[in-house]
Amino acid sequence: MGRTMALLPPFIRASRISRPARTAAPHHPGAGLPADDEVLLDVPDDRLGPALVAAGRGAYAPAAELLSRTRERAEWEYRDRYVTRLASFARSRDEWFAEWRAAAPRDPDVLLLSAQLAVERAWRSPARAELLREVSPLITAAAQADHRDPVPWRIALDHARGTRAGHKYLGELWTAAVRRAPHHYGCHVAAKRYLAESWHGSHRECFDFADRAAQDAPADSLVQALPARAAFAYLTDGCGPDVPRERLDAAADRAVALSARFPSLDPWPAEIRNLLAYVLVRLGRLDDALVQLRLIGPYATSFPWDRLSDDPLGHFLAVREDVRAGRPVTGPWHPRNGHGDRAHPDDH
């Protein structure tokens, strides 16, 4: 589709066949799964955890050091995730950030966190579009603070979706984003979600975008999970033309191969594994879903379960119990707002 292709970066090549072998495992109910009371929601990794604890005590220095380190080392995936989690924390407790911003108002990390926080706050307001337009200067300031950093451009892509910006402008943002980091997962998720929001029901176009990006990305890139994101959006939407089962399975297979590259019981890939578990369950691949649940261990994540229930941890545990018992998994399977992958600015 011409409009979709306009969003595809020049580094994406023509589609080529690349399908990992499936992972299958026999049912051993309960084996390798922690007890329900050992499962936690959205556990930070060992770098983010101390920064959040310190922020809870009103100290910003650990968060400042953490973000500075990701910028100096060009750890853009970590930087994106950390700034999102820190902004979420600051939405309810921002004393530590107000003090940091007063002490270093032009610091690139302060500017980035300011932009992320402003977009999140505006997104949750009934006056979303108007408020989002007012925060554009914050995003610009963050982008100008470090010209290498793709994260401000991911924020800009989310912002464009919230303001219903046109395709030409979105294409300009996309070009700027991939110039800085061709395989940045957050930017790819933001662009895919713009497609889903802009063309409701355009699941085949979203799959085209996700598949081409994954085919071009390194095998260990988080972008390998992008087709699974497209599968999640399709499975929760109930709108648009059917996507062939083979394509859904291929998306899951690609994410299974990516998951296998990470250690088990690791919080870093936990969200991808939670997403993959949902997709596998919906596809009826319970043996494969059980493999992912074992790899997840105690690390449940809000996404995707908070799209389906006000109690994401409880929903995850209920699904896990059905898979563990080898019985059909019950719903709900559709988001409460009816817009699977389009309701939140920050679920990447």
Question: Mind explaining what this structure looks like?
Answer:
The structure is a single chain. This protein has 348 residues and is an all-alpha fold. It folds into two domains: 23-45 and 182-348, Alpha Horseshoe (Serine Threonine Protein Phosphatase 5, Tetratricopeptide repeat); 58-180, no CATH class. The protein contains 18 helices and two strands. Strands 1-2 form a two-stranded parallel ribbon. α2 runs antiparallel to α3 (61-72), α4 packs across α6 (108-123) and α11 (185-198) packs parallel to α13 (226-237). 47% of the residues are buried. The model is unreliable at 1-28 and 338-343 (pLDDT under 50).
Counting H and I runs of at least 4 residues, what is the number of helices? 18
From the spread of the alpha carbons, the general shape counts as globular
Summed up, the domain count is: 2
Q: Give the class from helix and strand content and strand pairing.
A: mainly alpha
Residue-averaged pLDDT:
88
Radius of gyration: 20 Å
Query: How large is the share of residues in beta strands?
Result: under 5%
Helical percentage: 55-70%
Spatial strand sequence of the major β-sheet: 1-2
Distance between termini?
A: 25 Å
Residue runs with pLDDT of under 50 for 5 or more positions: 1-28, 338-343
Biggest sheet details: 2 strands, parallel
| Helix-strand string | HEHHHHHHHHHHHHHHHEHH
How does CATH name the architecture of the largest domain? Alpha Horseshoe
- According to CATH, the fold-level topology of the largest domain is Serine Threonine Protein Phosphatase 5, Tetratricopeptide repeat
CATH C-level category of the largest domain:
Mainly Alpha
Q: How many E-type strands? A: 2
